[in-house]
Amino acid sequence: MGGITFSLMEDEYQKIVAEYGFNSKDFWLFDNENLLIFNYTRNGQFASDIAITSRGMIERYCDLRDKLLQRSIPMELFIKKSGVRCHL
Predict the structure, then answer these.
(1) C-alpha closest to that of 15 among 74, 71, 73, 80
(2) Given strand 26-30, what is the order of strands in its sheet?
(3) Residue 35, by phi and psi: left (phi above 0), alpha (psi -120 to 50) or beta?
(4) Distance (Å, whole) CA 35 – CA 57
(5) pLDDT the model gives residue 1
(6) Continuous segment of H or E residues that includes residue 38
(7) Pick from 13, 34, 8, 11: which is nearest to 24 by CA?
(8) What gap in Å lies between CA 79 and CA 16, rounded to an integer?
(9) What is the CA angle 54-57-60, rounded to 5?
(10) What is the end-to-end Cα distance of the chain in Å, rounded?
(11) Which helix (H) or strand (E) segment is 63 a member of?
(12) Of 29, 37, 44, 74, which is most buried by a Cβ count within 10 Å?
């Protein structure tokens, strides 16, 4: 998204992901054509990645990404609203 970082509260993220029936915490889309889903252990360590080639699944994740971006806000605003103190 042009170098802008967006953020979303965890509860909002979980609500949206549940609507789509997904349980992935981390995925990357490249040019709306390639999808990687990352898996982590319970303590947050990277475990594996899965390359998805199904066009239908890629389209579902594109829809999910769009929905997440609609509900997210730029990181700078998120930090101001959350009260977290940090330097960007």
Answers:
(1) 71
(2) 26-30, 34-40, 46-52
(3) beta
(4) 9
(5) 47
(6) strand 34-40
(7) 13
(8) 21
(9) 150
(10) 18
(11) helix 55-71
(12) 37
Report residues of the chain scoring pLDDT below 50: 1
Amino acid at 7: S
| Residue-level pLDDT at 2 | 56
> Please, is 58 exposed, middle or buried when counting C-beta atoms within 10 Å of its C-beta (0-12, 13-18, 19+)?
middle
The two tokens of residue 7 are 């953020």
pLDDT in tens, 54-74: 999 999 999 989 998 898 888
List the structure tokens of 19: 């609507």
The distance of Cα 35 from the centroid of its chain, to the nearest Å, equals: 12
> In Å, how far are 30, 40, 41, 54, 61 from 45, measured between CA atoms?
23, 5, 5, 27, 23
**pTM of the predicted model as reported, rounded to 2 decimal places:** 0.73
